[in-house]
Amino acid sequence: MANQNAKGFKRLINACFFSAAGFKATWRHEEAFRQEVILFVASTPLAIWLGETVIEKLLLIGSMVLVMLVELLNTAVESVVDRVGFEHHELSGRAKDIGSAAVMMSLAWAAITWALILL
Fold it and tell me: Catalytic site residue 30?
């Protein structure tokens, strides 16, 4: 990371650029993330329309944001594991499997949230 000594407002600006680069890389390299973003874009208007209270709307939308957040973290873990090496290693496989399990749990949480609020 360039300019790690930046302070104050400059550090914040740098962080925004690094975050944008992270979103761009994830969008480019992860089909699952693209699918989750499309699901988020489609479900957000539904959540606003179907949620009866502000809290329900926030829970419906927030559950989808959680899925994307966990996918970003999973992608980061997978990228680091792949950076270390492509040869099979039990711990590398375990790290990737755990990241995948976290994504699955977030998807299950989103489904349960939607079901309990809308049914």
Answer: no
Confirm if 117 and 51 have CB atoms less than 8 A apart.
yes
Tokens 């988020």: give the residue: 40
The full DSSP string for 15-62 is: HHHHHHHHHHHHHHH-HHHHHHHHHHHHHHHHHHHH-SSHHHHHHHHH
Asked whether 59 and 113 are in contact (CB, 8 A), the reply is yes
Q: What is the pTM of this model?
A: 0.89
Q: Which residues of 81-103 are buried (b: 16+ CB within 10 A; e: fewer)?
A: beeeeeeeeeebeebeeebeeeb
CA angle 11, 13, 15 (to 5 degrees): 70
**Marked catalytic residue, from 30, 36, 56, 71:** 71
The model's pLDDT over 26-54, given as tens digits with 9 standing for 90+, comes to 999 999 999 999 999 999 999 999 999 99
Give the Cα separation of 6 and 20 in Å (integer): 18
